[in-house]
Design a protein that fits this description.
Layout (H helix, E strand, L loop, with lengths): L1 E5 L4 H13 L3 E5 L20 E4 L6 H11 L3 E4 L6 H6 L2 H23 L3 H6 L1 E7 L24 H20 L3 E6 L1 E3 L8 H11 L3 E4 L5 E6 H14 L5 E4 L4 E3 H15 L11 E4 L14 H7 L7 H14 L1 H10 L12
Parallel strand pairs: 1-2, 1-4, 2-3, 4-5, 5-6, 6-10, 7-9, 8-12
Antiparallel strand pairs: 9-11
Length: 352
């Protein structure tokens, strides 16, 4: 299978690229415009493979996308490119509208025009796989059942609203034009090569450096955590088996409060790299909550597990241990980011 994959130098996208090259016979064209959160180091271990190619291009550029489709002639699209940080969407929603909505539209149109020129058997086999988030479903109270594929949409932030809009476009292109699209929604991912603005890498790095560990509110907000390499496997299984018009909610059944996550990171670090000053939980600092902070996300992945023949291999404890160890072993990578691109400052405090 020849796959056009967008956002392949980002966190989840690079995990998918590595999985494709290392675990399958597929080929991949990585279309990534290299925003602040992208790093070529994330795919360096597979970049020399003949089945891998990287093109620096922006999905918003429809003409360029059409040219890439015509030149590469893919069998499938895996669309991961997105602005994804909720706090940044609060500070500057415009780029989220451009990338997540306009970019998805441009990619859909390029795929549709290419697909319409294929032979009938190639049209039937083609897939457009749109990778989305569980945040489009809004939030859950403690007593609510987890999200499923049929949960109504109720996005609460500029980020989740832009992703919801892109999901609707993808489904509309299937129902209106017949383009063989499907959507996967996932929970919070964590793992290696994660840009250090998100909770787990930020807390891990701060804890390594002996800095304050910021926790929103009382740390009671609940997230359902999925190790990124498990997600990558699920996504590749989905592009191989996914049915047009379908939705697959992908998760690992690993809900934790934010405070539980932070304490787990501290415990692993205390074991792997003891701090003479004492246990790292002493560094936890409660900070004012994010505007409109969703309380709980959780997915029931039963349908995806059955349809894709997949189940997450890592529980949270084994995944967080691998993650913390990786950050200990890759200080050069995140050290350069901290010194130049993102110093760990708080984002997303605007209220108007």
């Amino acid at each position: 299978m020849r796959i056009v994959l967008t956002g392949g130098c980002g966190f989840i996208g690079s995990a998918v690229v590595r999985h494709i090259i290392q675990k399958t016979n597929h080929s991949v064209l990585n279309v990534d415009c290299m925003t602040y959160a992208a790093s070529e180091e994330t795919v360096a271990e597979v970049a020399g493979d003949a089945r891998y190619e990287h093109v620096r291009a922006n999905i918003v550029n429809g003409v360029e996308m059409q040219r890439l489709f015509a030149a590469y002639r893919p069998d499938a699209v895996m669309h991961l490119a997105a602005e994804s940080h909720v706090d940044r969407s609060i500070d500057g929603p415009g780029i989220f509208v451009q990338t997540n909505i306009v970019g998805t539209y441009a990619l859909l149109e390029a795929a549709r025009k290419y697909w319409q020129g294929l032979a009938a058997d190639e049209q039937k086999a083609f897939r457009f796989h749109h990778i989305s988030t569980d945040e489009v479903f809004g939030h859950l109270e403690l007593s609510d059942p987890p999200f499923t594929e049929t949960t109504p949409y109720d996005p609460r932030s500029p980020y989740s609203a832009s992703k919801a809009a892109s999901d609707h476009l993808v489904r509309a292109w299937h129902h209106t034009y017949g383009l063989p699209t499907f959507v996967t929604n996932t929970t919070n991912n964590y793992g290696v090569w994660h840009f250090p603005e998100k909770l787990i890498p930020l807390v891990t790095i701060n804890a390594i450096e002996g800095k304050d560990l910021p926790v929103y509110g009382k740390g009671e907000n609940i997230r359902d955590w999925l190790f990124v390499e498990d997600h990558a496997e699920a996504l590749v299984r989905a592009v191989e088996r996914g049915e047009p018009g379908e939705t697959y909610a992908i998760g690992a059944r690993q809900p934790r409060t934010n405070l539980e996550v932070v304490k787990a990171i501290c415990a692993v670090l205390d074991e792997l790299l003891p701090d003479p000053a004492g246990p790292r939980e002493r560094l936890i600092r409660y900070v004012s909550d994010r505007p409109g902070h969703d309380f709980r996300y959780e997915i029931d992945p039963s349908h995806a597990e059955s349809a894709l023949g997949w189940k997450a291999a890592h529980d949270f404890e084994s995944g967080i241990r691998k993650t913390v160890q990786w950050y200990l072993d890759h200080r050069d990578w995140w050290g350069e980011i901290r010194s130049r691109r993102y110093t760990g400052q708080r984002l997303g405090q605007q209220h108007g």
